[in-house]
Write a structure and sequence with these properties.
Blueprint: H1 5-16, H2 22-31, H3 47-53, H4 56-62, E1 79-80, E2 83-84, H5 85-88, H6 90-93, H7 103-108, H8 112-115, H9 122-131
Antiparallel strand pairs: 1-2
C-alpha cells in the first residue's frame, strides 16, 4: 500500500491540533515538552515521524493556523490571524531578540524589553502597538 502525501499531512493536522489520540499525546509528551514547537527544533523521533515532520513546511504553507493557546505557533515564522507577522510588522521584527519565539511565550511575557532590543524606533513602536 502506498501512503500518499495527503495521508501523511493528515497526521500533521492531528498533531498540530493536539487531538486526543494516544500517538499524538505520546509524541507531544516525549519530544516537545517545555513549550518547544516542533518545526523550530531539530528532528526527533522515529524514522516514520521524521518523514512526516519533513512535510511540516508544506503543511504550514497550505494550512490556516488558528493561534488558540499559542503553544504550536511561532510569533514571527508562522501565518496566524491571516498574517505573516515577520512581513506584516517588519520594523518591529528587526528588533526581535528571538526569531523563533512561540506565540504563547510572547503573550505570557508582557515586558517589551524581554522580547525586543531597545530602544525601538517610532515606526517599530507603532507596529508594537498594532501587535498588542
Amino acid at each position: 500500500m502506498v501512503t500518499t502525501l495527503l495521508d501523511l499531512m493528515k497526521h500533521l493536522h492531528k498533531f498540530y491540533n493536539k487531538m486526543n489520540i494516544p500517538w499524538v499525546q505520546l509524541i507531544w509528551s516525549t519530544h516537545y515538552v517545555n513549550g518547544k514547537i516542533t518545526h523550530a527544533t531539530t528532528e526527533k523521533g522515529s524514522f516514520w515521524w521524521k518523514d512526516i515532520m519533513r512535510l511540516s513546511d508544506n503543511f504550514r504553507g497550505i494550512a490556516s493556523c488558528v493561534a488558540g493557546d499559542g503553544t504550536t505557533v511561532l510569533l514571527w515564522e508562522d501565518v496566524w490571524n491571516n498574517n505573516y507577522m515577520k512581513t506584516a510588522l517588519p520594523r518591529l521584527f528587526s528588533f526581535a531578540k528571538n526569531n523563533i519565539l512561540p506565540l504563547a511565550q510572547f503573550m505570557s511575557d508582557s515586558s517589551i524589553e524581554n522580547n525586543f532590543h531597545l530602544p525601538l524606533t517610532q515606526q517599530a513602536m507603532d507596529e508594537a502597538l498594532l501587535l498588542q
